[in-house]
Amino acid sequence: MADPFKEMRGCFDCYLSAYYAQKGDFFFIVFKYNGQHWTFLENHKTYLMIDGKSFEVATDHRGQLNWDDGADSIVTERVFLNINREILASMLAAQKIEMQIGGAEFKIKPKFIERLHAFSDVVQKLPVQQTGK
Q1: Looking at domain 11-123, does it have CATH number 1.20.120?
Q2: Higher pLDDT among residues 27 and 132, named by residue
Q3: Which one has a higher pLDDT value, 41 or 67?
Q4: How would DSSP label each residue in 78-114?
Q5: pTM
Q6: CA 120, CA 117: separation in Å to the nearest integer?
Q7: Taking Cα atoms as reference points, which of 32, 28, 33 lies closest to residue 57?
């Protein structure tokens, strides 16, 4: 799922994708960034602005340094946004969604929201999972 981040400097492969957690009742929206430099390693604090209402989102960061055939380094970073059903419902009903990860700000394009609706249609059929043993 590509697009909202193509204009980001140094980014040549950035996209969002969504996943359902098997334990607990939450979802992951994953922001993947491939670029020339570490961008979110030290600061991946994330906020969603959904129709003017701000949500701070818990995140986790994973990254790795790769080498291409020309011996140039490529950084792959993934920021995992932990989204509960309330935030997901707000996103699905939204007219406008903006996101800030670290110092980078983005507008979420309608195509991602359309795909989020398709994802939600599948997830809503799944039973609510409880955390614990």
Answers
A1: no
A2: 27
A3: 41
A4: EEEEEEEHHHHHHHHH-S-EEEEETTEEEEPPHHHHH
A5: 0.73
A6: 5
A7: 28
